[in-house]
Design a protein that fits this description.
The chain is of the alpha+beta class. The chain has nine helices and four strands. Bound molecules: glutathione.
């Protein structure tokens, strides 16, 4: 029996976890949860993840792990080869900070349920949702670009020349940015890192367009 990954092609939290699983060479069964039709808000899926969010990873013994960052850290602890996080504490803190800028500052306020609420409660419409999304990406991408561009710790990827935890988060966010037409001109370092990641099969095969439920 292999791991079961409950996820959705376009979900950036799913994309970041797929990239991490691919980097570790861990195989999984892909179980698509169609968010636009509310497949995550069913009794059946609530039985998998009480939070009704993707991704969720079901292990061989039936344990279900939730929260993409927690799952990525579990993955790193159980599959130590090709580490996602560096060993040195200050380096670990830097990588976690870069990852959290994307995962905790941008993603939660640009999530589907937030954009849906903006529309339903405040009549944001397509233009309003797009403006909101863009605003919160730029708010964090401006300091993120500066941090990456000015640190000697940045290499081909976010930290050195080995892709890891922060890269998984950044790569996934970039696909969402593309959907919402975020102008990436001001972020040459981030663009360079994304291109380097996208050239790796572990990342390219985690991209939304490559998933079986992509439509
Ligand atoms: N912090 C969670 C967030 C999970 C999450 O919000 N996933 C999104 C897709 S990227 C989702 O399921 N959204 C459903 C909704 O907003 O209704 C994680 O990192 O796993």
């Amino acid at each position: 029996m292999t791991l079961k990954l409950y996820n959705y092609f376009r979900s950036s939290t799913s994309t970041r976890l797929r990239a991490a699983l691919n980097l570790k060479g861990v195989a999984y069964d892909y179980i698509g949860v169609h968010l636009p039709t509310g497949a995550h808000r069913t009794e059946e899926y609530a039985g998998v993840n009480r939070q009704e969010l993707v991704p969720a990873l079901e292990l061989e013994d039936g344990t279900v792990l939730t929260q993409s960052l927690a799952i990525m850290e579990w993955l790193d602890e159980t599959h130590p080869e090709r580490p996602l996080l560096p060993a040195e504490p200050k380096a670990r803190a830097r990588v976690r900070a870069l990852a959290q800028m994307v995962a905790l500052e941008i993603h939660p306020i640009n999530n589907l349920r937030v954009l849906t609420f903006l529309d339903a409660e405040f009549g944001a419409g397509d233009a309003g949702r797009k403006a909101w999304f863009n605003h919160w990406v730029h708010t964090t991408f401006q300091p993120l670009e500066a941090m990456l561009a000015h640190s000697p710790d940045t290499g081909t990827f976010c930290h050195g020349d080995t892709p890891g935890y922060a890269d998984c988060c950044l790569y996934a966010q970039m696909w969402n940015n593309r959907r919402f037409e975020v102008d990436m001109t001001p972020y040459p370092t981030i663009r360079r890192i994304f291109d380097a990641l996208d050239a790796l099969p572990e990342f390219a095969s985690a991209a939304p367009s490559q998933q079986p439920d992509a439509g």
